[in-house]
Amino acid sequence: MDSIEDDKGEDIVVIDLTGRASFADRMVIATGLADRQIAAMAQHLDRHLKDAGLKRVTIEGANGTDWVLIDAGDIVIHLFKAEARALYGLEQMWGADLDEAEEGEVTSL
């Protein structure tokens, strides 16, 4: 996600959802420092995704919130302020650490 890096997005994480979720194959999570920065990242991503041929890109929350969601079909992108990212904890909900914990629970039965 070069676009996010170019816009000074921080702590960029890509989570593989293949076989784990029906709504997307990849989830991208990044942090921005201010509403304007997050809105600019969303606009730039929208343009890049459409230039790449994705026709249905939906953006929610781009009007000055702590969290912007970009749904590009197989890819879902979350742009957060740091406080909101910590509050919602998507990495903990969908990250690889969860898979390892579930596998450990299943094998210990």
Quick overview of this protein structure:
The chain is built from 5 helices and 5 strands. Strand 3 (58-60) and strand 4 form a beta hairpin.
Q: List unreliable stretches of 5+ residues.
A: 98-109
How large is the share of residues in beta strands? 25-35%
Described by the principal axes of the CA atoms, the overall outline is globular
The biggest beta sheet, please? 5 strands, mixed
Total number of helices: 5
CATH class: Alpha Beta
Describe the 3D structure.
With 109 residues, the chain is of the alpha+beta class. The protein contains five helices and five strands. Helix content is 42%, strand content 27%. The chain has a five-stranded mixed sheet. Strand 3 and strand 4 (67-71) form a beta hairpin. Mean pLDDT is 82; it is low at 98-109. The chain has a single domain (2-107), classed as Beta Polymerase, domain 2 (2-Layer Sandwich), CATH 3.30.460.10. It has helices at residues 2-6, 35-51, 82-88, 90-94, 96-107; strands spanning 10-16, 26-32, 58-60, 67-71, 75-81. The longest helix is centred in the middle third of the chain and has 17 residues, at 35-51.
